[in-house]
Amino acid sequence: MDQDIATYIPEAAQSQIHELLDDNDLHIIVKKARKTRHGDYRKLKNGGYQITVNNSLNPCRFLVTLLHEIAHYHAYQFYGNGIQPHGREWKQMFQNIMLPFLRPDVFPNAILPLLAKYIKNPKATTDSDIHLSLALKSLDPPNNKIYIFDVKPGSTFIASNGKIYKKGNKRRTRYECVAIDSGRIYAFNPNAEVELMDA
Predict the structure, then answer these.
(1) Can you tell me the distance from the alpha carbon of 153 to that of 155, in angstroms, rounded to the nearest whole number?
(2) Which residues pair with 158 in a beta bridge?
(3) Which of 194, 190, 72 shows the shortest CA–CA distance to 132?
(4) CB atoms < 10 A from the CB of 151, how many?
(5) What is the pTM of this model?
(6) Any idea what the Cα angle at residue 44 is, between residues 85 and 119, rounded to 5°?
(7) Starting at the edge strand that comes first in sequence, how are the strands of the sheet with 164-171 ordered?
(8) In terms of DSSP bridges, do strands 156-158 and 146-147 run parallel, antiparallel, or are they unpaired?
(9) Tally of CB atoms within 10 A around 43
(10) Measured distance CA(26)–CA(39) in Å, rounded
(11) What is the pLDDT of residues 179-189, one digit of tens each?
(12) First CA to last CA distance, the chain
């Protein structure tokens, strides 16, 4: 591994993680926060493999993201390159890798049942599970941001991309918001964190 990730994950998970990462061809890189992803996995041109995870994540979210990416690596190693990135093979691998970590010495008791439910049919990102995403975010240090579902309709806010939007109506699971600079409509997940501009 390129970096010691022990400081980024819960202490009780460290020995198991090092066992999962015991491969000289797999490199772990901790990166500065990215707005569009928590982490990623890819095969390198030199034949090696790389996982990156954002350094801004709290230990529990970091661990879930890391295990998500490790599951990609093991799924491709076991099933080959012809599988879908988040298809049946990845889901099964993620379940198998994640299960041993579902313990109260690794995750808070309030998060364990949400994780157990999530891994029954995991999606491409934990952000698609609103309840799990909010529970994981509750472990973050306090900041001046709020969730978009708490923003009043018609209020303006600054999104993670730095642009200003006005909140509109909810359509099924997402909120329609208008970009102030272009007038275009964008859909926001209810658990998106934004900075409120007016009351």
Answers:
(1) 6
(2) 164, 195
(3) 190
(4) 22
(5) 0.82
(6) 30
(7) 146-147, 193-196, 156-158, 164-171, 174-179, 185-188
(8) unpaired
(9) 14
(10) 15
(11) 999 999 999 98
(12) 47
